[in-house]
């Protein structure tokens, strides 16, 4: 545990020295990577150069930590995140959030691509996450408590911050963006769910399913950050429509919606 804490501090020190601290953190999900263009004075470091930081060797994976000014606020953005299905441990998946905490981040925006479970949703709509269900059996807080960051049994009543949700809804209305609100169910992946699992998800109260976001949210709450989560419903989940799911559809929909997604995120950060 001491080794892990030391690793977090070493990574945070490296980032602080090269690109500086931030008050707001953004984890960019599928297709949103080019939001970093919105920065006024951006600097980045490659994940592979941050000591002890996980990094993907997959081609086309940006793997950059950006910091700069956005609407007068110091913001850091992760261009590329780590998923449990890639084989990263929970400590690795959530390391960036703990590093953000050491760098002064108090508000975290998490974004993702997700499958729509709620039958009123349609492909390409955006969903503000109101709550989550963890179906993976994993929890990033398993093990000795990192008391430097937070308490042993953190409250999850408001995993997603009520005020931030309201603010985001107001911005959506101003922009004329039709947003949904709902519960995100975290699935292991990497295979998409079966139709039976999606029926179960709906019965359990899920509106969307995805393979990320929840571990980062849990750790951010443990660190005392306020969290806003927004999903792009890139496809209706398995078995709802008479089509098979494929990754290209997820990528294509995320690309089609990214302008709106970015505008909503940007307006919410401006309004903070
Ligand atoms: N299931 C899980 N994760 C996803 C999906 C899905 O249908 N679409 C995008 N990410």
Present the secondary structure layout.
Layout lengths: L1 H17 L5 E5 L14 E4 L17 E7 L2 E7 L10 H13 L4 E10 L9 E9 L27 H14 L3 E8 L8 H9 L4 E3 L3 H9 L3 E11 L10 H25 L1
Parallel strand pairs: 1-4, 1-5, 5-9, 6-7, 7-8
Antiparallel strand pairs: 2-3, 3-4, 5-8, 6-9
Hypoxanthine binds next to β5, β8 and β9.
Helices and strands, in order, run as HEEEEHEEHEHEHEH
Judging from the principal axes of the Cα atoms, what is the shape?
A: globular
Number of helices: 6
Number of strands: 9
General description of the model:
With about 270 residues, this protein is an alpha/beta fold. Helices cover about 30% and strands about 25% of the residues. It is built from 6 helices and 9 strands. Strands 5-8-7-6-9 form a 5-stranded mixed β-barrel. Helix 2 crosses helix 5 and helix 3 (about 160-175) packs across helix 6 (about 245-270). The longest helix has 25 residues, at about 245-270. It is globular and about 50 Å long. The N and C termini lie far apart (about 35 Å).
Briefly, what is this?
The chain is of the alpha/beta class and 272 residues long.
Name the descriptors.
five-stranded mixed β-barrel, 9 strands, 32% helix, globular, binds hypoxanthine
């Amino acid at each position: 545990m001491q080794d892990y804490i030391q690793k977090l501090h070493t990574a945070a020190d490296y980032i602080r020295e090269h690109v500086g601290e931030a008050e707001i953190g953004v984890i960019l999900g599928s297709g949103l990577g080019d939001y970093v263009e919105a920065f006024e004075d951006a600097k980045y470091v490659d994940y592979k150069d941050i000591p002890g930081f996980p990094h993907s060797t997959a081609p086309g994976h940006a793997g950059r930590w950006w910091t700069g000014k956005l609407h007068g606020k110091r913001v850091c953005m992760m261009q590329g995140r780590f998923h449990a299905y890639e084989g990263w441990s929970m400590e690795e998946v959530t390391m960036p959030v703990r590093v953000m905490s050491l760098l002064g981040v108090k508000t975290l925006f998490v974004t993702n691509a997700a499958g729509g479970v709620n039958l009123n949703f349609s492909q390409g709509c955006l969903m503000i996450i109101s709550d989550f269900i963890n179906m993976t059996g994993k929890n990033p807080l398993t093990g000795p408590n990192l008391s430097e960051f937070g308490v042993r049994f953190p409250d999850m009543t408001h995993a997603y911050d009520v005020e931030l949700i309201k603010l985001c809804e107001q911005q959506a209305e101003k922009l004329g963006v039709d947003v949904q609100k709902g519960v995100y169910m975290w699935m292991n992946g990497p295979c998409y769910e079966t139709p039976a699992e999606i029926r179960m998800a709906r019965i359990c109260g899920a509106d969307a399913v995805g393979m990320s976001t929840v571990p980062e949210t849990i750790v951010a709450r443990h660190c005392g950050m306020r969290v806003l989560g927004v999903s792009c419903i890139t496809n209706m989940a398995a078995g709802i429509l008479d089509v098979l799911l494929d990754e290209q559809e997820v990528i294509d929909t995320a690309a089609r919606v990214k302008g709106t997604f970015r505008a909503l995120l940007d307006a919410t950060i401006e309004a903070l």
